[in-house]
Amino acid sequence: MEKTPKWVDVALIPVLNLLIAFVISGIVVLLIGEDPIKAIKVMVSGALGSPYGWGYTLYYATNFIFTGLAVAVAYHASQFNIGGEGQATLGGLGVALVLLAFPWPHWSIALIAAMIGGALFGAAWAAVPAYLQAKRGSHIVITTIMFNFIGASLLNYMLVNVLRPRGAMDPATARFAKETYLPTFHDLPLIGQFFSKSVPANVSFFIALLACWLVWILIWRTKLGFEIRAFGRSETAARYAGISPVKVIMVAMLISGGLAGLMAINNVMGQGHRLVLNSVEGAGFIGIAVALMGRNHPVGVFLAAILFGFLYQGGGELALETTIPRELITVIQALVILFTGAFDNMLRAPIEHFFVARANAQKEA
Amino acid sequence: MVGAQANEAGRQATAALATQAPAIELKGISKAFGTVQANKDISIRVMPGTIHGIIGENGAGKSTLMSILYGFYKADAGEIWIKGQRTQIPDSQAAISAGIGMVFQHFKLVQNFTVLENIILGAEDGALLRPSLAKARKELKRLAEEYELNVDPDELIEELSVGHQQRVEILKALYRQADILILDEPTGVLTPAEADHLFRILDNLRKEGKTIILITHKLREIMEITDTVSVMRRGQMTATVKTAETSPEQLAELMVGRKVLLNVTKAPAQPGKTVLEVEKLRVVDEDGIERLKGIDLNIRAGEILGIAGVAGNGQSELLEVLGGFAKATGTIRVNGEEIDLTGKHSDGQSRRRRGISHVPEDRHHLGLILDFAAWENMIFGYHNDAAYQKNAFVMDNAGIVQHTQEAMERFDVRPPIPTLPAKSFSGGNQQKIVLAREIERNPTLLLVGQPTRGVDIGAIEFIHKRIVELRDQGAAILLVSVELDEIRSLADRVAVMFDGRIMGHGPVESATQTGMGCLMAGLGGDDVRGMDGWTISDEAAPEETA
Predict the structure, then answer these.
(1) Do residue B434 and residue B449 come from a single domain?
(2) According to the model, what pLDDT value does residue B262 have?
(3) What are the transmembrane regions (chain A) (predicted)?
(4) Which of A46, A246, A344, B22 is deepest in the core (most CB within 10 A)?
(5) Which of B327, B363, B368, B380 should be substituted to probe chain A, the one whose Cβ sees the most A Cβ atoms within 10 Å?
């Protein structure tokens, strides 16, 4: 059977999906009486038009890379991890505890310790649903969703009753020591001159890139990845091959939870400098859309994370500079998710058909 | 025997209706999928009141042709004429209203609906179910009497045997007033007794003037029940002949385009020391039903033990336990060493390290991962072997692709492209991939389940040859097959399973068709006692009570 060219599959179709989503978003903007062309201009210039905008776009993208990778790894083992939000929340707790526990002499050592703390807490939060799925057959979608709520409540309790400094009014930890602040893009050599002091993007972005590469190695180059993918594609065949389902589910979910937890080095350690309530801000859920759009491949996840970073930052600018309400940004994001994820096949079938027919016509000619 | 009479009746019917318009006439049907020409200029005429067989290897284009007739695919060229009228069939609704009913290989029934609910599904008369159900119940009763199509209308589908589920599919078609029935590989899932019953039903339908198209790759069925037969090869109709005027050998030749040796030529076995010893093996499944009720058997090096029996009598469980993915009690020794049946080492990888290779019965769900490339499948189960690792962290993918390329050439897998996903290969080539993977390890014990199920004749020959070769190199082989012909031509010794027990075992030379048939039904009797050198279980009923 003739196949569609690869570039159609990985580039043309996502781009067309995106265009449709933007066109419909534009219609919605028109309906509320604003100019869609102006809206797009504001979004693009706000998110991509200046180093300042990029500093925010890449900061958000870093969050989404971690949570997107988390969803992707679990997906390869056919586990739908909806719990990125809770795992990232717990990751934040882990990072905060590590940073507050010890007077770290330098940010680099603190970063390594914080990564271990965040990943461990995130993994631990994924471990319980994973165990219940592997051993008891409780559906992972349900349990991870419930663990998001438990995670939020747990953080609430910890901040209000345990970690809040004496006399402080808001539910948040104390500020971390200055030595643990991660270098932002402003502090970096060469590119630093372009970015202002206030941009939140920091070295975590490079950790996220490294994570993309490591996940690619893990999934496509290691025995463990082979087993994860085999189990994800066919449980019965995996059993025949002697691959332990319990092991695959547990390991894949622990890695997934760990990646979600790692997000905290960006938002808590790199930007917040203390742990506050709801510091994850929905990035766990955006990760699902990012993985979906990125087809669970690290390169795709990276690109989709940049896109969603753009939507996040551009959307914020839109609310500032026009009368378009902030809620509409959510609508636009939802449309992008809808078209790139849920409606993907709507466009895919006719396009593939077109290219197959064209290839045949060329052969016959 | 039913078949012979039926053929006679059918031929008379054909003669009487010769002047009538054909029930179905296809003229010059062509259909291509990409570069593959699935159907090329196909023309057939099927007269009303006859059974027309369509036979061909896997991938010959039989199912595509029927899918066009049922409106699943649109032909690139050609015409469909139903009862003398040119008919467009853009979808299955149009096929149904043209009087065509289809019984798929994989049934399309709602498992937790009753028979009656399934029958009216999509053919309800109004918003309320009650009148439709009442009407269907009456109609069902009539059809049951007319065609021997008895099923309890209030039984849930999931409670029914496969044979009964198939009857529901036929009833569904008849309830929609189909007078042309298409059956796609209907006996693939049936026991021999169920298949016989199906043929009686088809015969009754023919007597009532229904037209039946039977798609199969089993020559015996064609000879037994059809009036005329068309042979397909590589998308083309190579011949249409009257069944009475042809022979299985001729049909086989037409199917593959060359003469096929249906019997394997092999030297007598030279058994060495005992490799596999199984004692008192018991398996209880999740529902608490005992699937294996104390199996004792042994296989020596350089010997093929064939396990015969109707599917579902414990053969699958036996393979699963030996292959390491089902728990059991009892003892299994390989080369004198006991193997773990319940603990940490009762998994497939431990078995493979012991030199046990396993070609599973179901290559789609067990033997292969269809989405994986051929090279990934070629190491599946052996992926932890040191030979496939580049270093402590990553696998040697390039080396595996290279190894796969060579193995594919040795096993004549077509096309020999390691990066192609397993699902793009035909059944026979898929099986060759599994076989290459398992045989090339030079196992001490090879487990083989249904090695040629859904495999075309050319590949069958090749597969049989490789199995015999492995035997001659001194491997012990356990062969499970529901095809008696396969057991007879490959095995050196035969054991017959029935209801989780081995009813009898002995040398293949003295096994008679009727004797094995009796054992497969759990019966003893004179036919069985007449087989020299056979040991018969006490569980075999002494007299034929059937």
Answers:
(1) no
(2) 59
(3) 12-33, 53-75, 87-104, 110-128, 140-160, 199-219, 240-263, 275-292, 299-316, 328-347
(4) A46
(5) B380
In terms of domains, do B331 and B374 share one?
Answer: no
Which of A71-75, B170-174, B244-248, B363-367 shows the highest mean pLDDT? A71-75
DSSP letter, residue A176: P
Sheet holding B274-284, edge to edge: B290-300, B274-284, B329-334, B337-338
The predicted pLDDT at position B3 comes to 46
Average pLDDT for B529-543 = 82
In a domain, B140, yes or no: yes
Q: In A, which residues are within 8 Å of B393 by CB distance? A: 217, 221-222
Residue window 213-272, chain A: list those with CB within 8 Å of chain B: 217, 221-223, 226-227, 229-230, 233-234, 236-237, 239-244
Query: Is the residue at B496 inside a domain?
Result: yes
B325 interfaces chain A, CB cutoff of 8 Å: yes
Q: What is the DSSP string of B312-326?
A: TSSHHHHHHHHHTSS
Whether residue B30 is found in the same domain as residue B167: no
Residues B318, B483: contact at Cβ < 8 Å?
no
Q: How many CB atoms lie within 10 A of CB B230?
A: 24
Residue B414, domain extent: 364-440
User: In this predicted structure, what is the pLDDT of residue A111?
Assistant: 97
Q: Is B235 on the interface with A (CB under 8 A)?
A: no
* Whether B376 and A236 lie within 8 Å, measured CB to CB: no
Q: Report how far apart the first and last C-alpha atoms of chain A are (Å, whole number).
A: 18
Under an 8 A CB cutoff, do A223 and B384 touch?
yes
For the stretch B88-134, pLDDT in tens is 998 888 999 999 999 987 788 998 999 999 998 888 877 888 888 88
The angle subtended at Cα B530 by Cα B528 and Cα B532, nearest 5°, is 105
B52/A311 Cα distance (integer angstroms):
62
Helix, strand, coil percentages for chain B (3-state, nearest 5): 35, 25, 40
CA distance B342 to B325: 10
Per residue in B339-378, pLDDT tens?
999 888 889 999 999 999 999 998 988 999 999 999 999 9
Residues forming a β-bridge with B77 = B30
**pLDDT confidence band for A55 (50 / 70 / 90):** very high
Q: Is B146 on the interface with A (CB under 8 A)?
A: no
Chain mean position to CA A308: 9
The token pair that represents B368 in the structure block:
């292969």
Q: How many CB pairs under 8 A join A and B?
A: 80
- Whether residues B200 and B52 share a domain: the answer is yes
Instruction: Give the dihedral sign, CA A121/A123/A128/A129.
Output: positive
Averaged pLDDT score across all residues of chain B? 87
Do B344 and B458 have their domain in common?
Answer: yes
Domain count, chain B: 4
CA atoms of A60 and A315, how far apart (whole Å): 12
Q: Following DSSP, what letter does each residue of A8-62 receive, concatenated?
A: IIIIIHHHHHHHHHHHHHHHHHHHTT--HHHHHHHHHHHHHSSHHHHHHHHHHHH
**Residue B104: inside a domain:** no
Same domain, B245 and B313: no
Nearest Cα neighbor of A254 from A134, A111, A95, A102 is: A134
Q: What residue spans define the domains of chain A?
A: 62-297
Reported ipTM: 0.87
Domain membership flag for residue B265: no
Instruction: Give the one of A229, A234, A242 whose C-beta lies nearest to B352's C-beta.
Output: A242
Give the model's confidence band at A162: pLDDT under 50 very low, under 70 low, under 90 confident, else very high: very high
Report the CATH number that the domain containing residue B92 is assigned in CATH: 3.40.50.300
- Which tens digits make up the pLDDT trace of B245-267? 988 777 877 776 654 555 677 88
Query: Smallest Cβ distance to B347: which of A229, A237, A244?
Result: A244
Regarding predicted confidence, which is higher, A320 or A178?
A178
